[in-house]
Amino acid sequence: MAGFLKSPGSIASGVGSLPHTDPGQAVDDVLKLCPAMPYAPTLPNISPYESIIWHDSEFLPGRVIEGNKLYVDRALDFSLEMEQVYLDFMEQNIDRYAASLDYAAGYFEMAKRDLSKVWCIKCQVTGPVTFGLTITDQDRRPLAYDAQYFDMLTKMLALRARWYEMLMQKTGAGQTLVIIDEPYLAALGSSVMQLTPEMVVSVFEDIGSLIEGGIGVHCCSNTDWGLLMSLNLAVISLDAYGTAKEFLLYRDQIKTYLEAGGIIAWGIVPAELDKFNLETTDSLWQRYLSIRDELEPVVGHDRFDAQAIITPSCGLRLADVPGALRIMEAVAEISRRARSL
Q1: Which domains are seen in the chain, by residue range?
Q2: Facing residues of 266 across strands?
Q3: What are 217's strand-pairing partners?
Q4: pLDDT, position 3
């Protein structure tokens, strides 16, 4: 069962994807710029199977791939495959959900490294909400609108998440963190999307039941942050560059969450090169300090600093390699400044 992590003390980390096509170089760069909290990168420029959704679709019952299109064909009989997912979840048959190299080259490369001295190793899995609202059946109906299929999907991704964690444990790292990548949590409360708080709660209960280390969520859009903080997740990762104003409306919940041991990954450095190029490290540092100062009356600087991680606002797959490195260097510098306060 997932739990809280030790206090990170404003260390640097990243968010999922990188634009590299060489897994070895990608991991070397991560270890150089995020030495205390490296993350296993997805590398969608190597293979489309490493992109979000596809990355974790390998064992999806009823999956059909036509060119660059992925969907579920309900004309197929995949009832036995769904039953197998439920059985595997109950019996924790994790190895059946092992990733192939085409789906996780960066993960396999990171697993080769000795990380016995790092604070934590981080990886991520596509969230069921984002998966279920993005992928449809042959009639273009989102999978999340089928309650039974969504429940099965959540359990399949929980098994995949646990396998990722097991792979990362081979590094010797003392702590592991599995982040659930859920940009579509922005749909929570929408009258258009059939997404309820109960569905969100079930996602983290199912996945958290298999994870041994910490479990967290990354949402690069605005959402019901109060609900997420009530779930006692180890880490909440957000686009602090773009959505800090909305997040800070939940100051009472932030106080309770941090006091309980929760950690906030502040994505203060924009992942988009066009936005990043309009900023400097100093301007981003001032943005970060303004967030810190706004929460000072609520949680105090000491607790804020202790329970903070510094990251980009999202994954860096849309940048080129030099641009991605400049973004990560800015993250590392802001972390250095925060740790010297």
Answers
A1: 11-47+105-134+164-339 (3.20.20.210)
A2: 238, 310
A3: 180, 236
A4: 80
